[in-house]
């Protein structure tokens, strides 16, 4: 077996078409508590190109050259000492951490605790589409907002990779699910389980009033502040794109100046939250094999399912990023390996 492999790497901050290239690098070897998977498929997420663009350099700086990619599915081909839950030949899926980036590669080494067995009823492409969006949803709605059946949730961008999973998951929890999308995607997101679709090119979202127990803000910008206008008193805004909350600022900020800047960015959000006696959560997703196993069980029961828009060959990584960054994907964009 070759001691090298191919991997998509960033060599500098910048546009993906300039910063990314397919490199030949040493094939990694698993250490204690780690396993190596032969990657069969890997999915793209907006955070991948945001990292390359440098949008997150304050909270997650990169050291170049760096392999990229969070989501992968494949076959275990080597295990390190102490690994007990997996054996060579097991089909698995994983969400890499910020310290173990490199899913867009022929092989990936990950800690055992990040990995879960692949759901038996889906293929590698479907499994690769799930980890980041599933973990982001669980950690936002359950771990932070602590949602309950019967509550009304607004999920922004329901046709995107995150939104299309969050609709299914919130519905499985017994929530009343409303989502935003374009009118051309309205029937599509309704088929995912949305109880009501608000078309941003046709409907007035603010006319709905302050009726939501939870707003899942996947867009950021003006949408984060607007979320509090739509929220019931005592509700929760869960954001993956808004200003940092206090926990995130304390965890990732470095210098006093950076911390001060983060507090300044969040001041309007916290003022809006205080007016509504609301909770605000802005977080970065953490890797968890245990939570992926929970998602795998739901997939096997048919409660949730992968939503894949388009599949590209591994060598077409730049074309895949171009497609994702255009902002029109319905569901996830996936890279597949040959063979």
UniProtKB/TrEMBL annotation:
SMART domains: PKS_ER
Alphabetical list of Pfam families matching this protein: ADH_N, ADH_zinc_N_2
UniProt KW Oxidoreductase keyword: yes
Record's keyword terms, sorted: Oxidoreductase
SUPFAM superfamilies per record: GroES-like, NAD(P)-binding Rossmann-fold domains
TM region(s), chain numbering: none
Record-annotated Enoyl reductase (ER) domain positions: 15-335
The keyword Oxidoreductase is annotated on this UniProt entry: yes
GO MF annotations, alphabetized: oxidoreductase activity; zinc ion binding
Annotated PANTHER family: ALCOHOL DEHYDROGENASE RELATED, RETICULON-4-INTERACTING PROTEIN 1, MITOCHONDRIAL
Protein name as annotated: Enoyl reductase (ER) domain-containing protein
Organism: Arenimonas oryziterrae DSM 21050 = YC6267
